[in-house]
């Protein structure tokens, strides 16, 4: 099949139009005289992990932030990189495909060629397997022409998700050396960017000349931290799913007799479910983070939904739409514990048929309580990241089943007096992943691709390309790079066999912040959503006219531009230094000392690690 | 819940833009001086049924076709209806919601008000139940403003699908009389339009003044005959589904390790599956009509798919996309027979648990062979139209299961040498039904709404509104009306308990014509689709730019404009009459007689009913 990669193909009329779309560049990346300004050296967000991270990444931890500025920017310390020798860059798709991935290639390719037409971009064919096997496709204008602004990862393909074992890392290094790569760009999510950081460290240690750059591309939207506001693909996925959810809402309201249970993508975190709820206003959403935080059992969740159904029945409403993230099932404490037991037994080689007899008494009781179809799905072998095969576990059917049983019980008992409860279940997973990317994802990915070039031109290693202030128009976007190690945390408690890797620094999926503004917006509206059917239909993904420039609600309500604000702080400090120069008056010095002493006191107190165990973001 | 009908609501930006869209009218419907030309009296397409239909519909069978022409059209016999007294019209949504239904209301409302501002349009709330209970909502500009060009049936809602029993028909008549309706417009598919014809006949018999008009609105696209080229909703459904299928194709090509089995809507006929295949070029489609025509068993279908998987594996391809219509399961002869036995037992009141023990030996053998999840689904009580609960039967999972088992067998045997077979299943049903309607469906529905008015203004009863030449731009569309009875056929062999209604004339779902041009196009491309992955991505439904004006492939390849061609024939006949007037030369008369004798001979031969049992279209 590899021989087919990169072949030209027939595009539909709309695809052709999209292929003609030229994403804009923010002013700072225009032309060939981009300035780089280095900020302060970075630390890890979780100060408790900083020492461990520093020890694990001696060559790449603690590097400064980098900001890319336009040539005319008035920043004294910024430097213009004037030399642009031809360079060779490799690029690999890691992990699940995400709409917009192709545009990272395009942006990087254009930036390479603008700065030196003799530079080379090699795509690895078939993902990390292609990297290990040194199978490449040289990107050319011709090859790329039918992939501009198009979905999927089919220009290069992808296979396994990991570059982690010593064997894999060595194979990657051998490939980079054999192909004489100056840079390797890794496109992926949390896992792949952790791998990229590890590769960068290993390469630096081994004095391999290849610099490694990561790009945040994952439709789950869970690679989120101070430096990274959102991920390529998330916007498209939420828009396509919100369209479908809205269609189902309209359907529910037309027939008025079904409850739709819809399972959405989102494994460790419920970002997609939250965003889709804010876009399409279904009646209810059950976020994994809420369930985990409140330690809700399967029975609690069932009861919550039944109470909602009952409250609506009292208003003579017998329809509704309820969203669930696929990771929900692992957030339910007792189901998680059951899964852990099952996975443990599977890893010991216990056959599927004998597992139920070897469970602990309480796990066995829960297992036997569950309907047969779910039992079968829970018995599937866990994935490489130790989680259950979440796309295969029909949590929506389980909950629909439990709710129906409970409503029937209440009906018999006389506490529920409404009509029969009818549920229809859906899983909205794979049908969105291959979508044409939204304008936002096209632009964001293209700009990130450009930044990859500037990171390599600046000779940086182990950085992730970043764009901040994304809720503003492209001409206000701020471009930079942050060491991946600065985004790492150290997990204190491992999961199952993950205890082996206890204390290993890594990027971890950011979960929905239950104290954040997006969640607050959901809570404020939850009752209206539940009772008033204020369904909102953003419609199918548009590329022109209203809606085409819409951005994710969660992106727009959250505080943003951490990178910009870090720069702003630097400017304040510089200003103090300029005003309080030796020779200034005693009064000025006194005022400065008093004010700064107060500031440092406050900051010391609030940034001391607490023992409450809160994750920092 | 009824109190919520027709309330204004928040629209998204895209919905607002769509609400501003004003569908065009073909020139023949512009202004208030539309001419009506009556064509020849109609017969039924199946001459064998004509007598039965005529006997069942003495008042409404054999009425002429009606063509609506512009005031300036040079047609001698056409009449302009000059009187437009205020009239009262009721409108009811019947059956499953279909995108565009709202625009029929809008078109009718505008036509009513243009001709007489004192006319009244009443919508029945909650479908046929609302008709029986005389629950209405008067349509006003204000009420309709947020429903223009919007999906769903939520302005009025819908409930039961039938107006058929004596009690129901009487309730409908009582409503029409009580509300002093001049017209009743029934919006729906095959079943609802049959009911409309029956109502029209009953009303005429009872001298009820209300005229009944049907409108072909059904997303299945199976209300198709000489007069009706396509149905409102079909275009949108196929576009939304093709978008999702294309996304899945891109996904398959990116990961190269999954076969996707996708079940689509389409109960008695596979029009949606055929159209989506022609739009998005998946690897394979299994049409119910092919299976029925070739009497393929479950094992034959499994083998066909396995052979395809094997052929692709030989080219190192381990991914693919396979479409199935939801009605497929009933097309498989042995499964159909099993379902008939099960439904018979269910109707006799046999409990679900005892059914398997009461099946005939061979049916029992098949039943026990099937995996448990399918057994449970086959045991569901049949729907009101005697078909199985097709939306609940996961045919895609059954076939994926059987294909996997067979591939594993071949692997063991050594005949299949490829990698492991992995299947992922999807049902694309409800997520398209509530979509914003495509431009085509907005226009088509709006024009049909206008035609309803002209049918009523001409005093016609038992007609369906028709638009032909739909593949051309709106300004070439031809508007008319045909008696519903002319579209009826008489089924010779009843199904199960349907034998009671043996010989009762009705509209029947048109199945995919295996000799038609659309199917031929599929066959010509089947091998390329299967082997070459020439996936085509029409992209999400657009309302502007490329793709926004795309029409269904099946609509564009089929012969069209039957109504137009019938008119053309009339013109030829008139011309002959004009040329061969008394007083013409002997030679002219001789030539005319000779030619006409030959024409009539040929036509007599080819229009004599054959006994081969072919359905006429």
Rg of chain A, alpha carbons = 26 Å
Strand order of the largest sheet of chain A: 3-1-2-14-13-8-7-4-5-6
Would you tell me the structural class of the helices and strands of chain A? alpha/beta
* Beta-strand content bin of chain A: 5-15%
Model regions low in confidence, pLDDT < 50 over at least 5 residues of chain A: 496-501, 611-617
Q: Largest interface by residue count? A: A-B, 72 and 72 residues
Distance between the termini of chain A: 43 Å
Notes on the structure:
Chains A, B: Keywords: Allosteric enzyme, Cytoplasm, Glycolysis, Kinase, Magnesium, Metal-binding, Transferase. Chains A, B: Regulatory subunit of pyrophosphate--fructose 6-phosphate 1-phosphotransferase. Chains A, B: One of its GO terms (cellular component) is cytoplasm. Chains A, B: This is Pyrophosphate--fructose 6-phosphate 1-phosphotransferase subunit alpha. The structure is a homodimer of 617-residue chains. The first copy, chain A, contains 23 helices and 16 strands. In chain A, helix 3 links the parallel strand 4 (88-93) and strand 5 (120-124). A ten-stranded mixed beta sheet of chain A has the order 3-1-2-14-13-8-7-4-5-6, sandwiched between helices. By secondary structure, chain A is of the alpha/beta class. Chains A and B meet through helix 1, helix 8, strand 12 and helix 18 of A and helix 1, helix 8, strand 12 and helix 18 of B.
List keywords for this structure.
homodimer, 617 residues, alpha/beta, ten-stranded mixed sheet, 23 helices, 44% helix, disordered C terminus
